[in-house]
Amino acid sequence: MKSEYVKSNALCRSVTKRQPTGQGLNIADNCPYKVSQAKLIRVVQRAAKLMEGQTIPDRVRNFRKNHMSLVHSTKLGSKIIHVGGKLGCGFGMNAGCISSEYTTIFNEYNGVHTEPRLITKKYGGWYGRWKNADQLIAKRVSDQSGLTKSPFYLFTERPPCPDCTLHFNKAIYKANDEVRSYFASGVTSGDVAKEYIPEAEMKFPDYSFSVERGYPDGLTGRKKIVSPKIQTATK
Fold first, then answer.
1. d(Cα 19, Cα 21) in Å, to the nearest integer?
2. Is the pLDDT reported for residue 212 higher than 60?
């Protein structure tokens, strides 16, 4: 599947349709049963939990700030600057992290999305594809409730794309696996850039930033006007 994030500073849209969570229910007949049997009658959720509207972790914000850079110069010299990302790190690329490990990455150009890359890294792989991620997930041990003993808490700025959502709906993923995202579906690279204006103004303090029509995939910074100091005459 072609990556939904085309290139670093290209306009990128995610057409994510959230699918219903797959669930299975153990059905019992009307015969009397013991307490031990009752414990086996439970709703088993066979999918990871997907949550939008979550807070962006500080380490993702710092990661974005560290990867911001000047994209190109303008005829107005230093009065106006354009800020995007280093190669492969623009606002059109999805950034994410997983659990408590300090693992923060972007997806790759060749169709490898952030989610499988983070999962393979957490469970001992090396930034792999979904095939690698699913294999590692399937090896985890579950407890008596059917939940995994080694869950993940994954954050990506954008919600999972339809292909990634299909994987998270597999039975090998459990209800205590959490996939968190900040944006809803339909986000553009300009929307992502706008969210990181505070980080841009911290990195380039002489400029005020916004997303403008002339550069919709990143941030345009305009140099702040410094008022001259008023000198008072002394007698």
1. 6
2. yes
